[in-house]
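User: My collaborator and I are trying to settle a disagreement about how two of our proteins should look. Neither of us wants to argue from intuition anymore, so we agreed to look at predicted structures for both before our next call. Could you fold the first one, then the second, and keep them clearly separated?

Assistant: That sounds like a sensible way to settle it. I'll keep them separate. The first protein:
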Amino acid sequence: MKREPHLSNLPDEQWALIEPMITAWKQDRVARSATGGPGSGDLREVVNAIFHQNRTGCQWRLSPHDFPAWPAVFHCFGLWRQDGLDQRIQELLRCQVREKARRSEDPSLVIIDTQSVRAAAGVPRTTTGLDVNKKVSGRKRGLAVDLPGLIIGAVVMAASAHDNAAGIALLDQAAERCGVRLEKALADQGFKDEVIVPRALLDIDVEAVRRNPADQGKGFAPQPKRWAVEQTNGTLMLYRRLTREHDHRPGTSASRVYWASTANMARRPTAPTLTWRDTLGLAA
């Protein structure tokens, strides 16, 4: 019986965006090493399996049997994380999405923030901790995003780590990927001078955005520009594998953030650009 494709599968036009990078990586990997290569499997199906696991939250061994065998998918996932291919694909799509929106490839302003995520049973205690402020035992996920909410950098560490450690790592990633164009970063009040002062050496102006006194006692209140990183965190929660820390290695968790971002952005360059006339027609 023929099975319907999974909803998380990449359509042809989206696969065409990332296929050249994966093919180039495969050729380079085979040239560099006679062993430990990706094998002869369908790498598009491997990507589909990763997208499916990210979105549904299933375990490796419980992947649907119409995907490649889970050890093969796990092997490729580890190689791509090790070689940084997951980040390069995400960076390529980010530049394409920004260009389609008539923005420059790299932003001049980024927003950084962290959120603490509970760890599942079996995650090593050596890679987790307790966030005493949020009363969360697990890991801390830090993001650096641009104004449209596209991810520039991601870092995962124990929840007991101070926001400063995440902020320094995120700004270092942003400076490396955006170059001299990056001028300013917005952060919340949890980031102290340990982040603000040293980053000035990179010519990055780090501003700690303080909450409007009029919003005190009202619960959550969106802050201008900084709401973009909150929106991105909320979007990542649509991927069940990211709602809780299941992976033993923090680097694996960071890789899942990049793959989730890739799944989101792959739809944007292939989506039709609507003019104001098209918008009026849809409203009618």
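The second protein, kept apart from the first:
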Amino acid sequence: MLNTPAIPPGGAAISGSAESLNQNPGPGPFLMLADTLTGNDVVNPAGDKLGDIKGIMLDVQRGRIAYAVLSFGGLLGLGDKLFALPWSALLLDTDRKCFVLDADKERLEKANGFDKDHWPSMADPRWASDLHLYYGRRPYWE
């Protein structure tokens, strides 16, 4: 049975067995260093690997996590396409030690991605609203 605590609007959900949620004497899974999440796999509910987390974008003015940056495709880091994912679209699965995104590979392939040298203007309200709408999430700033 998965134990999913209540989360504030715009936050990522956390799931796992009682043992995995309470196994650490130190930080995690409710408070974690952002860099410990970099490299974590992202899978869909069917267990298909979608990629891994390349970074976490902070909204400095609001003091919130805005997005996770997902790397998808490519081979050995070459040709990867990057995608911004609303933080609230992710579920941290403490049992499998990965993030779950409720999207199949085809949906991700159709999403607006970018490469490491050409990032979108993530502070653009229209871009941000469209992104949240694409993943069926309420914008975190509302």
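Some points you might bring to the call about the second protein. The longest helix spans residues 125-134. Residues 13-134 form a domain with the SH3 type barrels. fold (CATH 2.30.30.240).
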